Amino acid sequence: MKRTLTLLALLLTCLPSFGQQQKMTRRQYIEKYAPTAVREMKATGIPASITLAQGCLESGNGNSTLATKANNHFGIKCHNNWKGKTLYQDDDARHECFRSYKSADESYRDHSDFLRYRDRYASLFNLKPTDYKGWAYGLQKAGYATAKTYAASLIQIIEENELWRYDQLDAAEEQALPPTPMEAEASYAFKPHPGHKLYTVSLTREIRTTNGVPWIRAREGDSYAGLAKEYNLFTGEILHFNDRTRRVPLHEGEIVYLEAKKNESAPNLDKHVVEAGETMRDLAQRYAVKMKKLYKYNAMMPGTEPEPGTILLLRKPR
């Protein structure tokens, strides 16, 4: 009996303690999330190798507190439009708010949105998905992380684990990749406009369109009242089209819409990650979307402004 108890005690000491989970290895992490990274690559153009390497690095191979308790693999913080669950922990400051996802898939999708719809990363999408080195150094240059060795760390993870294998697309898959952010915006902006029966076309100004809405560029000395008269509009109309009041002066170089903006942005431009200093009106003017719709889609109070890093919806949530 004593010998049996001794063997049982030895066996118990070799097993993990009750409630303790064994840590995931890097290889296990890669095998588990490679299909998710490949799915995101086909949907956005971000190399699967880069996404996996960042996941390994940012989540400690899926073992970080954020990853295990909040399914947050990339350390994305709440910002002011996050309506889901949260997890608080110390980071750059004490007791910071981080997003908590229902699944790792949601975390990976949010990470894709963070890169695809943020201006500072837009040029990276001109690189091929197989150019993981260009992406790694581009992320570092754009300020994704402050560490000077960030790109080298990503490249090391990719090459040691042959993650570049996941970036291979056949001709049909490569053809099916979405347009880059720059291509998408260029396709629906800055097109010459032939004129419209609702207003008189000036021969001295070039009329262009964004999201199908015609606009002109204000010159020195222009006013909303003067432009309304020039284009056969009421002053109240042109102010309404541009989300302005009579008290706000018009400055040289500003975009002035000559028709009402749309309820939604153009296709392939469904989100935008807010940069420091950007306002809701800035984004309404940039994408030719009614400002009141932007507030509605993002469940924000009219008059409030989004925090930098906020992923702002430009189209009705579906």
Explain the overall architecture:
With 318 residues, the chain is of the alpha+beta class. The chain folds into two domains: 152 residues, Orthogonal Bundle (Lysozyme); 140 residues, LysM domain (Membrane-bound Lytic Murein Transglycosylase D, Chain A), CATH 3.10.350. The strands form three sheets. It has a four-stranded antiparallel β-sheet with strand order 3-4-5-6. A two-stranded antiparallel sheet has the order 1-2. Helix 2 packs across helix 5, helix 3 packs across helix 7 and helix 6 packs antiparallel against helix 7. The longest helix has 19 residues. It starts with a helix and ends in a 5-residue tail after the last strand. The relative contact order is 0.10. The N terminus is likely disordered.
Percent in strands: 5-15%
Give the distance, in angstroms, between the N- and C-terminal Cα atoms: 66 Å
Helical/strand content category: alpha+beta
Assigned CATH class of the largest domain = Mainly Alpha
User: How large is the count of helical segments?
Assistant: 13
Task: Please describe the topology of this protein.
Layout: H1 2-14, H2 26-44, H3 48-59, H4 65-70, E1 86-89, E2 96-99, H5 104-116, H6 132-141, H7 150-160, H8 171-175, H9 181-187, E3 189-192, E4 208-210, E5 213-217, H10 224-230, H11 235-241, E6 255-257, E7 271-273, H12 280-287, H13 291-297, E8 311-313
Antiparallel strand pairs: 1-2, 3-4, 4-5, 5-6, 7-8
Helix pairs in contact: 2-3, 2-5, 3-7, 6-7, 10-11
